[in-house]
Design brief:
CATH superfamily of the domain at 25-162: NADH Oxidase
Order of helices and strands: HHEHHEHEHEH
Number of helices: 7
Helix content: 25-40%
Number of strands: 4
Distance between the termini: 28 Å
Amino acid sequence: MKNLAVSDHELHPLIAQRWSPRAFDSRLVEAEKLAQLFEAARWASSCFNDQPWAFIFATKDDTVNYQKMLDCLVPANVVWAQVAPVLGLVVAQKNFKHNGKPNAWGEYDAGQAAATLVLQATALNLVAHQMGGFDAAKAIATFNIPETAHPVAAIAIGYEGNSSDLSPELQERENAARSRQPLTSFVFTGEWGNSAPFS
């Protein structure tokens, strides 16, 4: 994988290698690797071990459902995501399973499951690009998502492709240096805004 994170402190290789490319190879992802991705998500942590996540996915060889998934993305994402062999939705349950009460941490936990899935993808030499650019209402109607659940993100998964296959504008974004805010801007101690001494 390319575009490694240039970090201020040592990172585990899986974290340094994880990134969100827009260039995908069109070859299908093996069923066993897909199973491993969702097994990883299955073992994410969650409040009360409620596991309030669900994933709705379609592979490119399932042409009908893949097109339905593609139709839920905003046009700017369709441009590049249509090459990815796997498209999906990350869905959070709104209520706890054990008592039916609202789960204020459902989306947080679904995000943890998605992050775990993405790290497993990195370990398998796959790439994943998560997206906020999708029509949640359309996804709900298209895939019969119940009122008790809410789609929080879309995701494209596959093998990394060549950035030269993208438009010049997307190539520029694809090849740009990665950056992050410094620890001093978000790791505090004592009170908000007081940077931690190690940051």
